[in-house]
Design a protein that fits this description.
Layout (H helix, E strand, L loop, with lengths): L1 H4 L1 H10 L12 H8 L6 H5 L15 H14 L5 H26 L3 H16 L4 H5 L5 H22 L2 H17 L6 H11 L23 H25 L10 H21 L16 H25 L3 H17 L1 H4 L14 H19 L3 H28 L3 H11 L4 H13 L3 H11 L6 H17 L3 H14 L4 H16 L6 H21 L4 H13 L3 H14 L7 H18 L5
Helix pairs in contact: 2-6, 2-7, 5-6, 6-7, 6-9, 6-17, 7-17, 7-18, 9-10, 9-11, 9-12, 10-12, 11-12, 11-15, 13-14, 14-15, 15-17, 19-20, 20-21, 20-22, 21-22, 22-23, 22-24, 23-24, 24-25, 24-26, 25-26, 26-27, 27-28
Length: about 600
């Protein structure tokens, strides 16, 4: 019966995200699939991303995540939505399995400990705060880092207790892969000694204690084993950092003022702790107005400190370390996520997906508390009441997880929810406008873009709003209003390549349209269009559509040879571009022009 119970958290993890594979690609997913992945043509590109990938976050270094995206494309085909979503659910189920195994080691193999470990894994499986990590394809980095770090720590503990060579070798390798999935795995360097000291020692299962031929360290030498394991983990971290530097990535944190250095991280920490206990209301776009005030944050952190002291006292009295380990894990795993409040690299200061790794500790702490409650409950009826109440709680969480998953089904739902929670910020309105435009509602989309241009947000976000405004005006054939919107975009953010791309398209349309002037005016328009597109490519060398438009401009200027070179650059970046009917027809006309020019074909 005990083994059968271990299927419960895995089943719960799958059921909680039953609707995820039916979702569309949302938010940055389309950019990832259509614009970024084609830039990775070799394993060397994965380790050292080429320059000019559209909207690529170069300060990050996550080759393991890129490999999984390429695997998705290979297994399910480019542009698939169901495949990547299904893989995210699979990764979550596997992470739940490893959380359960680690919880079993930390909470003990007694009846109460076994049940508590299953309860901890189930809570992790159905916690609604994980919806962003599991339901968003582009947000799987936290999921993968946790999937790799948890078994790395579990194997480190097995090495401590069993001393098998493969455990010593596999643990730092998994740690390295976790780091290459996301930087938050660096918390493992702090979690390793914590677990090593506080986790209860477990005898090898099914292995004779006298069989030492496969062990490096002799029985009873935990200090030597720790030194070996710690050196291996530090070496893995050094390899990760070296690969980061070689790949051109870095971590830049330059906060100024006491608010940035102290109060903002404090408020963010309180928000994360609050969301673990009470995750509602949830938001994929969280802003400072949603974060507790300093006073409330101090109260939340005060309660957390009291819980930490109480768990430490409990451990000191009876060596029951489950709750203490869980609370410490939560705090240590939150540390790297607080860097987002200092670096300013993210559009939002806090995010629900950052809680995926810390929630492992929260689940273990809850499991430890449940084990104590079961031990204190004498009667069988009382124990059934405790277990039944916990099962009901998990069922409610599972239902709420499914409900939140419905919000992630498509961009219209997701950004309608976001604008309701953050109505004064530009980014949700921009994304909602994109969703409305994709659904064919251009009028509503234009209103959302115009609104976004007046709201709070970064220069990049407001430039995107202006660019999308220009696109819609261009579709309406309101050329001059479109041109002004594109010009606004590059005025707001001179490093925004798409703004120059839009100006290039408008210049070409004006030069070749029915309202074009004489040859001199037409030449000026084409020259300016070429300059705008070249500027777009200076900012984003991997911008495939800009290369195609530049080829069209060069052809219109009477230079088919240069146009062919530009089109070849587009094809080199994304071979699929040549499958577009309009691009294929344009390529053929270029070849004919070159043949005419060389005298091979007589008109």
């Amino acid at each position: 019966m005990t083994r059968a119970r271990w299927w419960l958290p895995l089943l719960a993890a799958g059921l909680a995200y039953l609707v995820a594979p039916t979702a569309a690609l949302v938010w940055d997913d389309q950019i990832l699939v259509t614009q970024q992945l084609p830039s990775f043509q070799s394993f060397a590109d994965v380790l050292q991303p080429p320059a000019g990938i559209p909207q690529w976050s170069y300060p990050y270094y996550r080759p393991v995540v890129v490999v999984t995206y390429l695997l998705d494309a290979w297994l399910f085909g480019p542009g698939s939505a169901i495949g990547p979503h299904a893989m995210n659910v699979l990764y979550h189920v596997l992470t739940t399995l490893f959380v359960g195994l680690l919880a079993r080691r930390l909470l003990g193999r007694s009846g109460e400990g076994e049940l508590a470990a299953i309860a901890a894994a189930t809570l992790f499986a159905v916690h609604p705060i994980h919806t962003e990590s599991v339901s968003w394809v582009a947000g799987r980095s936290d999921l993968l880092a946790t999937l790799l770090l948890v078994p790395a720590l579990h194997l480190a503990l097995r090495w401590r207790d069993e001393g098998m060579t493969w455990q010593l070798l596999a643990s730092p390798v998994l740690f390295l892969l976790a780091l290459l999935a996301k930087e938050v795995a660096i918390a493992g360097l702090a979690l390793l000694p914590l677990l090593w000291v506080l986790a209860p020692v477990t005898a090898p299962v099914g292995a004779p204690l006298g069989a030492l031929e496969n062990r490096i360290a002799p029985e009873g030498a935990p200090t030597g084993r720790f030194v070996m394991q710690a050196l291996a983990w530090v070496g893995a971290a050094w390899v990760w950092w070296s690969l980061r530097l070689a790949g051109g990535a870095s971590l830049s944190v330059a906060p100024t003022g006491s608010e940035m250095l102290f109060w903002n991280p404090l408020r963010a920490a309180a928000w994360y702790l609050q969301k673990l206990v009470v995750p509602w209301p949830q938001a994929n776009f969280a802003v400072w107005e949603m974060v507790p005030s300093v006073t409330v944050s101090l109260a939340i952190l005060g309660v957390a400190a009291l819980a930490l002291l109480a768990s430490a006292r409990l451990w000191w009295q009876n060596k029951n370390a489950g709750i203490l380990l869980g609370i410490c894990w939560t705090g240590l795993a939150l540390g790297p996520s607080l860097a987002a409040t200092l670096s300013g690299v993210a559009e939002t200061p806090v995010a629900e997906r950052y809680l995926y790794l810390p929630s492992v500790g929260f689940a273990i702490a809850v499991g430890g508390a449940l084990a104590l409650l079961l031990q204190a409950t004498g009667s069988a009826g009382g124990r059934r009441l405790v277990v039944g109440s916990y099962a009901l709680l998990c069922a409610v969480l599972l239902a709420l997880c499914l409900q939140r998953g419905l919000v992630w089904q498509n961009d219209v739902r997701l950004w309608a929810d976001a604008t309701a929670r953050a109505p004064d910020y530009a980014l949700p309105w921009v994304e909602r406008g994109k969703a409305q435009a994709a659904s064919g509602d251009d009028g509503t989309a234009l209103a959302y873009f115009e609104r976004a241009r007046t709201l709070k947000g970064s220069a990049q976000t407001r430039a995107v709003a202006s660019y999308n405004t220009g696109l819609l005006y261009a579709q309406r054939n309101e050329i001059f209003r479109a041109e002004q919107a594109f010009r606004d975009a590059v005025t707001i953010n001179p490093a925004y390549g798409k703004g120059y791309y839009g100006l290039g398209r408008i210049g070409l349309a004006r030069a070749t349209g029915p309202g074009a002037g004489g040859p001199a005016e037409r030449q000026v328009l084409l020259d300016q269009a070429a300059a705008d597109l070249q500027r777009a490519l200076e900012v984003s060398p991997g911008f495939v559509d800009a290369w195609v438009q530049l080829a069209r401009v060069l052809a219109a200027r009477g230079d088919p040879g240069s146009a062919v070179v530009a089109l070849a650059s587009a094809e080199r970046l994304d071979p699929a571009v040549m499958t577009r009917p309009e691009v294929l027809a344009f390529s053929r006309s270029l070849q004919q022009s070159l043949q005419l020019e060389s005298g091979n074909i007589r008109p």
